[in-house]
What does this fold into?
Amino acid sequence: MAFVGRSVPRLEDRPLVAGNGRFAADISFPHQLHMRVVRSTHAHGRIVAIDAAAARAAAGVVAVWTAADVAGIPPIDFRLTRIEGLDPYRQPILATGRVRYVGEPIAAIFAADPYAAEDAADLVTAEIETLPELLAADAPPGEFSPGYSTEPATVRKGYGDVAAAFAGAHATVALELKIGRHSGVPLETRGAIARYDAARNVLELYGAAKVPHWNRDSLARMLGRATSSVHLHEGHTGGGFGVRGELYPEDALACLAALRLKRPIKWIEDRREHFLATNHSRQQHYRVRAAVDEAGRLLAIDGEFFHDQGAYMRTHAATVPDLAATMLLGPYRVAAYHMVGRIRLTNKTPCGTYRAPGRFESTFVRERLMDAIAARLAIDPIEVRRRNLIAAKEMPYARALDTLGTEMIYDSGDYSGLLEKALAASGWQKLREDLARRRAGGEAVGAGLAMFVEKSGLGPYDGVHASIDSSGAVEVVTGVTSVGQGVETVLAQICADALGVDYRRVRVVHGQTDRIAYGMGTFASRVTVMTGEATRIAALKLRAKAIATAAGLLQSAPEALDVVDGKVVSKTSAQGPSIALDDLARALEPTSKLLGDATPGLSAEGFFESQHMNYPYGVHAAVVRVDRDTGAVIVERYFVAYDIGKAVNPMLVDGQIAGGVAQGIGGTLFEEFLYDARGEPLCVNFADYLMPTAREIPSIEVLIAEDAPSPLNSLGVKGAGEAGANAVGAAIAAAIDDALGMPGAVTELPVTPQRLRRILQPLKLGR
It folds into this structure.
């Protein structure tokens, strides 16, 4: 029975629902010390002195470190999208010379219990000579440090003759658009538990997620250790969303302390620290324009945007602005393009990736342009989109652009076909009629639609080790991690089909760097594509080895045998000889008399390389109701159509999309990190940082299409993790415009009640 394509139950949930999950806070070791980080209370200033004497003398305190104590440790390096000249902007693990945002680590306390550590942290005093705060990315650049500007780099993307396109255009539209600063808020905050095993000379770090092998290699370089002597271990993870699992200063501090103090070190981030110190994301300010012909067809898009990176360049370097500039064109055919992204440093928490990084932002911008074109030329917004879509017959479709080290080539897609499916499945025509009747009755209700292209399957490689033990159980060891997306289930399904066993007999081991030497990790919606294909290859090799071994034992030709339900059987006769995989595994044990000249063990390696990403795509549609008095926006209905190429487990795809939509609604209507004029964060708890609850999230309707399998892997799969978030801002903005009868009303996210009331003010004055 085939498992790929079926919504089989998840394998990873039993320990979680039984209360046996093992999260970072659950991990402890005898004689451990607890780390507390002392953080800057100033947004920008020169460090005159840090007095830690009282803290060092406090009961239970073993050590207090400031920058001088870690002077030999280099800053954390870049993992992706390194641009020349960014090195001076990396973050030190403790502030050196200057503080650049509220929440920056300036000292670390190590004490016998967490309460003593927290009390001692309050005893550390810092004398800071304040410097002017820079809080607006679109303001003139300032000085980061002597000789270095707060504009560390620009991202430039483009092709074609933009000037000629605008000169010959029938019409042009120009917009100024803003996306507010927000980020992932996982249920579990960050944690790092470091232990040095002197007997083995091994440094262990627990609480790892996302990219443990890269973090292992980076920590080894920073601490001057052999890579093989650093082991990272992932436990259960209470959410990732791009912000968890990167290498942060606290991870390096915990590891260094474990080595120096010869005791385990435990650090668990509290929620206020999470809001202050974990990567923020999203904040960008665009000035864009489009040139079109008389039919509304795009001739060119031109513009620039300011990317508010916060105080430092962290591990992602220029990834987010690079993706934003590259993927802004979405599913549309555009003859000429020019975009400049200005990376600006401000005195705010540094930024990184968050679900659909660069695409949530650029999809909002692109789809607002499409709606503006429709309004300018008095064409239906859906018809404008139809006229500009890249056709299925043009696939693969090469853009003269690149990102994440790969050329941008859309591998497959039928954008117009999915649009028509979405309109039919959502009942768009009837929906429009119903909304018109409600508006005639006085309600402010509307619908909006947005289209998008995602990216997934980032290479360049992934590998797994698969084996069968003497009980017949199959183990797949991989370098990826699980952040709740169903890794264990999906890889087990793929392995089961290729090998010929029940998926419940497959155990997937992930996030343990001592079990597999290499691994790219879990990001960029890459696991199902890259690790899935590596798993399929390993399982096929394992199957071939099992058949070859069984052929000798059963005195049959290998081509006459198959693996079915965990047994090697005859293809032609149900009554023919057979042997179970567990018996084969025992036959290949080193002590087996049947081993002969065969290599011991029933195992195989699978390795998959790909130099190109693949590109899933989708349609979002939203129905909203606006309360004209309060400015509240109620999302009544939300629909997503998404072509994933091939869904390994449709239930998990539905869940991924629904979760992404919920986060997208948060960033569109509620969530925003705000600062006062001195750079003091105003949103450091859930009373001020507003998140949607179940009451604000409608039931998410999902249509999964499989009309355009990817030609880049044997299964035809594409990723699903970021489809739900990508176009939420764009779709809801269009729906609000429709509800108000004001095309182009929404130009800034999130659309908070305060902002919406300002939009409504002209209407109220005109009553």
The CA atoms of residues 160 and 336 lie 4 Å apart. The chain has a mean pLDDT of 96.
